[in-house]
Amino acid sequence: MKRIVIMLLCAGILSACSAPSRMNKKNDAGDILKRIILVQSLHVQAQEAKTDSLLPSAESLSAVYLYEEKTNARPQITLTLRSVKESHDAEIDSNLVIILDKEEIKLHVKPYINSPSQKESVSPADLHPTYSIPENLWISMVHSKELYYRISKGEQAIALVLKQSEKEELDEFLKMAIKHRDARFPAIPEGQVKW
User: Fold this and answer.
1) Cα 126 from chain centroid?
2) Residues contacting residue 145 through CB under 8 Å, at least 6 positions apart
3) What is the pLDDT of residues 8-67, one digit of tens each?
4) What is the pTM of this model?
5) Are 88 and 144 in contact (CB under 8 A)?
């Protein structure tokens, strides 16, 4: 009996300590995939300006990857960063740098457009920086050995380093997105490409 209680306690502790990460697929009424969502909790590391060395930090950011298909448009992937402390979202800079195997790619925040169909205006506290990841980076991100993000938060530069398990989840998400994109928009054979 004691063994069972100890095993249950250990299982509870291990599940509480594991990083929250989840992937969702959303289909429309015709059972056609419209969205894939991956949510990860990334650990923040402060980056020293002079040495570029990474220091551990107690803070964490939530990264929400969204693959979305729209009618008569190419699918897109966006990355939304949310601070665990809601008041800190305003401090996140509008530039995100993706480091893929030591190559730096700079992305700018997507502008938020208040649509006329919205009944209420959105407060600044509800806005989170959202970056659009270009299609030509999807395969590079899957095949990269080293991948992390760098942003400025107030006066401090921070790095969001993906653990191996988080990188594998992101790879699975990107492979699913690529598979669905290729099913909707098949590649044109080389002999039929018009220039």
Assistant:
1) 18
2) 101
3) 554 554 444 444 566 666 665 555 668 899 999 887 777 655 445 554 555 678 899 999
4) 0.72
5) no
- Kindly tell me the sign of the dihedral angle through the C-alpha atoms of 54, 97, 173, 88: positive
Q: If you classify domain 18-113+122-183 with CATH, what class do you get?
A: mainly beta
Residue 27 Cα distances to 21, 32, 33, 71, angstroms:
20, 5, 4, 14
Task: Quick: pLDDT tens for 159-170.
Answer: 888 889 999 999
Amino acid (one-letter) located at 194:
K
Mean pLDDT (whole number) for 143-150? 89
E-strand stretches of the chain: 21-27, 33-47, 54-68, 76-83, 92-100, 103-108, 130-133, 147-153, 156-161
Mean pLDDT value of segment 72-96: 75
Between CA 25 and CA 6 the distance in angstroms is 36
